[in-house]
Amino acid sequence: MTGSASTPLQEKIKKRIADHGPMTVAEYMALCLSDPEHGYYMRQQPFGAKGDFTTAPEISQLFGELIGAWLLHQWLSQDLKGPVHLVEMGPGRGTLMKDILRVISLRPQMLANIQIHLVETSPSLRKAQRKLLKAYSIKWHDTLDTIPEGPTLLVANELFDALPIHQYQLTDTGWRERCVGLDEDGNLTFGIGSGTLSPADVAKANLQAKIGDTLELSPASNAIASQIGHRLKANGGAALLIDYGYAKTATGDTFQALKKHEYVSTLEHCGEADLTAHVNFQALANAAAAEGATAHGPIGQGQFLLGLGLLERAGQLGAGKSTLDQDQIRKDVERLAADDQMGTLFKVLCISNTSEQPIPFQN
């Protein structure tokens, strides 16, 4: 590890390793993001230009409005009876939900028949959500478990990339778990631990791997996808899971840290930098399908937004605006949907209780 100023959480992690031995990457990631006292999401306001990264809802209202229109269409096409639970997992500052509700409010009958639920563990983010969404009646939850049964429309944007991953590296003695330990100078470092990957998991991954390759697994992500699949199969509704990642299981080390919109070492700035990894959409789809739900996609975020009328809505938004404003709208559209920006790296997976393909997931 290079020499940056140590943080309180970094010292806490070093002591824990010194006392109990190396920890898995998943344990390390969970501590950095969710430690009750020093965790990144427990104390930071990470979003926007002044934060560490910018999510799609923070780029443009177009993103949330189109998702709101998609949810409205699902409510109509599935003829969902109230109360319908409108759920967002990992809602950030509440920007996405605000844009969604602005569209839903155009259909008062739907607005009157939904109950809004935000799944959020961060006290600081809950405070921001309360302020931004004060016009609405909202219930907060730590997990999906406490949301009542009933038809559900769910959105999770950039949730799964922040859930802990286990990393396994293929060695000449098989797949071994990658860990975080201490080097001879007492600094954090990566190493290979004693944990191994089960033959069942290897077979499930169906990989052509070579020595040195890394495989990432996220049991926490798969468990949430299973919950969503079970809920939708039992109660009806649909979910959109939006994140950056890969459509099919593949090898690769995607563990990364971001601070002030710049990539930094994953072993520095503990509790002060965002840690993420690419999402395995095939694993999420399989987990939901195992509960009897149907997975549609994933498709690229660009394909999803363009299929819902991104260009048309952008034209409406820009009508009558100044040239400067119109130019900014064009730039926002490109950032959200262009192949060389968020358009293909970010993907959208739909989970529903029906095999009928919703727009714009049709082949």
From TrEMBL:
It comes from the Bacteria. GO terms for biological process: methylation. GO terms for molecular function: protein-arginine omega-N symmetric methyltransferase activity. The keyword Methyltransferase applies. SUPFAM superfamilies: S-adenosyl-L-methionine-dependent methyltransferases (SSF53335). Pfam families: Methyltransf_28 (PF02636). Keywords: Methyltransferase, Transferase. This is SAM-dependent methyltransferase, MidA family. It comes from Pseudovibrio denitrificans.
